[in-house]
Fold this protein.
Amino acid sequence: MKIGKLPESVLVRSILKQVKHRRDEVLVGPGVGQDCAALQLKEGEVFVMSTDPITGTTKDLGSHSIHITANDLAASGAEPVGVMLTAMLPDTVEEPEIRRLMQDIERTCEQLGMEVLGGHTEITNVVLQPLISVTGVGKIRREELLSTMQMKPHQDIVISKWIGLEATTILAKEKDEELRRVFSEDFISTAKGFDAFLSVVEDARIAKKCQVSAMHDITEGGVFGALWEMAEGAGVGLEVDLKKIPIRQETVEICEFFGVNPYLIMSSGSMMIAADDGLLVVQELKKAGIEATVIGRTTAGNDRILRNGDDVRYLDRPQTDELYKVLG
């Protein structure tokens, strides 16, 4: 397509007409000539904002981008309301690809009860592959807002589902041919299917009812990065049992195949939760069919300790995500 703003005819039929789900809070939504969205809050509610560029994958980019942003909002305890999208697309893109991308975004938003509030789509030679930057908007009662600063010493640390889900499904899709040299069709298909677990919106909704103090979506930098960020944000120490960190065998084997560390790899789909009663959180999540595990405790000191049987090591500051070693 020609470089520049998306032609109005393409914008209308392949972008705007794909947006169907609506929420009562939205007074002004997407439209030709609309540069801003307008939302209305009820008394006592506050907006929560999050923004993310999605660069780690091109497969299922639409749904992936919405889940990542909705998860960030959910970690604050907020209800995700909608997203503003900036899509920068290479000049090799064709209109059917744009329409499929938008349909994927809209389908995921509808599943999560969110609305596409507006945005901008442009064809440019600055990018070599589609790039989406998503700004998410959520809402919450002021007194219910959570942040990592609220985590306290002597609390349980819970992880929902399994670490490495995001990276596993990305690698299974992006590196399908390489994996087929070693792994069976069923194995690869299962790994690709981990994208069904990427949302932690329900994890957060259930955990909130258990009087948790803080939640953190485990994204770039993996579980080790998330542990450091939560502890650093709250100014607490940690003592974590490495053997209790939940991980699927598919993740272990795919990470071994590519020579990367599963504890330092993108893990959206897994929520880290701090609570006085971690077993209660685990119990309530399991009632909803969501796996969860207590992996350790916060401490009053500054040490961030990882135990692996008799071996003890200290948690390092977040490093570059291992996924980039494979995808370049």
Q: What stands out?
A: The mean pLDDT is 94. Residues 95-112 form the longest helix (18 residues). The two ends are 27 Å apart (CA to CA). The longest strand covers residues 79-89.
